[in-house]
């Protein structure tokens, strides 16, 4: 039988296959392209919102806290906002609700509160220790504190220390109400409470996450932070600078001792010292001393 010879270099015609037709390309319609672009934009917006929420939760917005008082305990309080205190120096501050921010700022701007623009240099002078109080109630609790003043504020540490010691030892102050005696010490390490008198930007940093907005003072844990602008210029709610300084001290130290914000009891009454008097007296008259009006 005759068999055909197949040349290895020539394709065998019986094995020839037709080429595969190219796959059709998927082409989006104009509507499809718009839908895809919209989805990408939506995902980008959601990502930005999520990042913004995380940043707000972690560290404050540079806004003043709410002017509204609250009975919810917290380890943070600001004279321009913030909430009640639990009195625990070791407690960690909690963030201020963003939704309530802004009321204190509006009140300050409408009253033309002084903003000096002072920026401290970041250095600190700790005031020398004061002599022990000549008269302290037997059995009273001694609370030690140190005072430091930031450089560049124009405030002398010894002068400020003298006024603070005078206020804390005044019989109208907290000592009789709380059965405490305040003793100034020379180092922060020996102090149960540190009082810092600082420029507005430094106060904003030290008070975080409370939003002091360059205007207010605060207490966070074992630290009372006093705004140099308020120390030097007070607020429009006070005519007497010395009395306003007494109010600043007693209000923030009151937070340290565990007192929450209060409200005015009635028109014409003396303000509770824990009322946020820097913002609004609510019909009361200014009062710098806890023993002169009840905390409501």
UniProtKB/TrEMBL annotation:
DUF3152 domain span: 119-281
Keywords: Membrane, Transmembrane, Transmembrane helix
The keyword Acyltransferase appears for this protein: no
Regions crossing the membrane: 34-55
Entry superkingdom: Bacteria
Glycoprotein recorded as keyword: no
Coiled-coil region list: none
GO terms, molecular function: metallopeptidase activity
Ranges of Low complexity composition bias in the record: 66-78
Region (Disordered): 63-111
Protein name: DUF3152 domain-containing protein
Originating organism: Brachybacterium vulturis
Lineage: Bacteria, Bacillati, Actinomycetota, Actinomycetes, Micrococcales
């Amino acid at each position: 039988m005759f068999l055909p010879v197949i040349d290895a270099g020539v394709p065998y015609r019986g094995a020839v296959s037709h080429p595969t037709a190219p796959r059709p390309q998927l082409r989006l319609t104009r509507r499809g392209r718009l839908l895809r672009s919209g989805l990408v934009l939506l995902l980008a917006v959601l990502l930005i919102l999520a990042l913004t929420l995380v940043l707000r939760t972690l560290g404050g917005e540079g806004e003043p806290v709410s002017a509204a008082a609250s009975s919810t305990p917290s380890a943070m309080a600001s004279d321009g906002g913030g909430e009640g205190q639990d009195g625990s120096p070791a407690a960690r501050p909690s963030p201020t609700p963003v939704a309530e921010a802004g009321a204190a700022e509006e009140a300050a701007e409408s009253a033309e509160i002084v903003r000096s623009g002072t920026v401290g240099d970041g250095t600190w002078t700790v005031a020398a220790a004061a002599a022990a109080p000549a008269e302290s109630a037997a059995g009273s609790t001694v609370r030690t504190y140190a005072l430091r003043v930031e450089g560049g504020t124009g405030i002398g540490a010894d002068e400020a220390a003298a006024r603070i010691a005078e206020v804390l030892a005044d019989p109208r102050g907290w000592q009789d109400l709380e059965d405490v005696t305040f003793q100034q010490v020379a180092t922060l390490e020996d102090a149960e409470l540190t009082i810092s008198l600082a420029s507005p930007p430094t106060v904003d940093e030290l008070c975080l996450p409370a939003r002091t907005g360059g205007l207010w003072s605060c207490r966070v844990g074992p630290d009372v932070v006093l705004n140099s602008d308020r120390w030097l210029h007070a607020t429009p709610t006070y005519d007497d600078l010395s009395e306003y300084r007494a109010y600043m001290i007693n209000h923030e130290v009151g937070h340290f001792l565990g007192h929450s914000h209060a409200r005015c009891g009635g028109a014409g009454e003396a303000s509770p010292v824990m009322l946020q008097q820097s913002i609004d007296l609510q019909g009361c008259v200014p009062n710098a001393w806890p023993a002169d009006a009840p905390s409501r």
